[in-house]
Amino acid sequence: MTTHSSNAWQCTLVFTMLLLSACTLELTGNGQMASPSPIHTDPPADTDGPCIQPITNLAYPVGIPKPLDEEPKGVPPLGDWQTVSSLPESLEGYIARIATRAKEVWIAGFDAEMVFRYHTDTSRWQAYSSIDEVAAVPEDLYVSRDGTVWGIGVNAFGPESAPGLPLLSRYNETNDRFEFFPDVDGLLIGMGVLRNLPPISEDKTGMLWFFASKIGPEGAGDEAVGLYSFDPVSRKAEKHTSMMSGYHYTTPVVAPDGLIWFYNGQEASLYTYSPATGENRAFHGIPSFERIGSPWNLFFDESGNLWADNKGWLDFSDPTDPVWYEIIPSAAFLTDHGAFRTDDVEGPRSRYGFTPPVYIYQSSNGWMWFTTLDGTIRLDPRKEEWCRFTNGSSTVVEDDEGNVWISVFDKLYKYELGP
Fold first, then answer.
1. Maximum Cα–Cα distance across the chain
2. Pick from 137, 151, 129: which is nearest to 33 by CA?
3. Which residue segment(s) compose the domain that 90 sits in?
4. Rounded CA gap, 404 and 389, in Å?
5. Does residue 42 fall inside a structural domain?
6. What confidence tens digit (pLDDT) does each residue in 351-382 have?
7. How many domains does the chain have?
8. Within a 10 A sphere around the Cβ of 23, how many other Cβ atoms?
9. Residue 70 pLDDT level (bands cut at 50, 70, 90)
10. In angstroms, what is the C-alpha Rg of the chain?
11. Are 173 and 180 in contact (CB under 8 A)?
């Protein structure tokens, strides 16, 4: 599936990564992938400590290599990260979409032709390259609270085309395969979700929420973007509101009180949708996104604060008077790998800029994790410390045993949070 908004994904998810090393994989008799031999990768000698040192120079003389040019390429996770295994096949530089459930880590990659399943207790890989009998795989994965592995979107690489396929699929444990899971009215046939990470949210009732629109010729949306819900029990899908295409909208996120929050790029404002009343309302007041830039992600943390990228958060301690805390930009997000080179257009001309997160996550110890197109960054809110611990890009997830997982440079890594 592709996004159906011309401005919705200005930063492409194509991120060139280097394969640091490889190991030999063998297929077992049943087509499952045998465990690769262990890998041990030492950090580059010119890194210092568990974090990649950010650029802090006042200036540099033009004509010599820029500071970021001297950064080692392909820096694996620094610190106490464990290299678990190589992926069975390369994701070719795409940001890994990772989901976990008991003793399993699932990995997909946008436009990849396989979905991988890693068994943490047996160190065994499995690969899936079809949905039902169709040569297609999910573009994104989501594990709901009941343990269902959902496929979101379809990457069809066979004779079938995505416009004729259901939006949702799910993994069937009995048949050991992904199966299409159409809604009863066929409303989601030929639909595509926005390329946000994650693409969907789940409320307390198990309802799934997302933005989607019809897939048009060559992946162009031919109708307005809509806010949709899907009930996995009744298989009932419903369209709740429509927005104009050509603008950026974040994934809808569910607040503790049940309201659905999202960023409306058409209005450059936060919006709420009430499932109980069907009311769609703009949130007036700070922050002013016309000043600080549009957010790509919203996220509710364990305290009920609404984060807008790494720009700041809304504190709802007093629901009648939320307080906006604006974050002072960290040098950990400074990069020259982004849409900052404006030599051929009007506007500021700078080699450097702050790369926005494309994904936000919070682990059980309170740490915040930010995935960018130029690395993965950790924030310890209590110590107010930022750490860019790899220049690889991956979504971050935690399993039920307190392990955090990422996949960068076609390897799977684990970090034990501890007590």
1. 64
2. 129
3. 67-416
4. 14
5. no
6. 678 889 999 999 999 999 999 998 999 999 99
7. 1
8. 12
9. low
10. 21
11. no
Examine residue 287 and say whether the peptide bond preceding it is cis (omega within 30 degrees of 0): yes
pLDDT digits (tens, 9 = 90+) for 2-33: 333 333 333 333 333 333 333 333 333 333 44
Closest by CA position to 255, among listed 210, 295, 307, 326:
307
Share of the chain above pLDDT 70, in %: 81
pLDDT digits (tens, 9 = 90+) for 115-169: 999 999 999 999 999 999 999 999 999 999 999 999 999 999 888 777 889 999 9
For 378-389, the pLDDT digits (tens) are 999 999 999 999
User: Would you say residue 370 lies in a domain?
Assistant: yes
CA distance 324 to 287: 6
Q: Which among 369, 406, 364, 363 is positioned nearest to 386, based on CA atoms?
A: 369
The 10s digit of each residue's pLDDT in 207-223 is 999 999 988 665 444 57
Q: What residues are paired with 227 via a beta bridge?
A: 211, 241
CATH code of residue 336: 2.130.10.10
3-state secondary structure the chain: CCCCCCCCCCCCCECCCCCCCCCCCCECCCCCECCCCCCCCCCCCCCCCCCCCCCCCCCCCECECCHHHHCCCCCCCCCCCEEEEECCCCCCCECEEEEEECCEEEEEECCCCCEEEEECCCCEEEEECCECCECEECCEEEECCCCCEEEECCEECCCCCHHHCECEEEEECCCCEEEECCCCCCCCECEEECCCCCCCEECCCCCEEEEEEEECHHHCECCCEEEEEEECCCCEEEEEEEECCCCCECCCEECCCCCEEEEECCCCEEEEECCCCCCEEECCCCCCHHHHCCCCCEEECCCCCEEECCCEEEECCCCCCCEEEECCCCHHHEECCCCCCCCCCCCCCCCCEECCCCEEEECCCCCEEEEECCEEEEEECCCCEEEEEECCCECCEECCCCEEEEEECCEEEEEECCC
Residue 7 inside a domain? The answer is no
Backbone region of residue 167 per phi and psi (left: phi > 0; alpha: psi in -120 to 50; beta: other values): alpha
Looking at residue 304, its pLDDT comes to 97
Average pLDDT along the chain: 84
Q: Is there a contact between 354 and 333 (Cβ–Cβ < 8 Å)?
A: yes
Which pTM was predicted? 0.84
Query: Residue 296 is encoded by which pair of tokens?
Result: 């790509």
Q: Token match 């974050």: residue?
A: 327
Q: Which residues contact 220 (CB under 8 A, 6 or more apart)?
A: 2, 4
- Assess if residue 124 is contained within a domain: yes
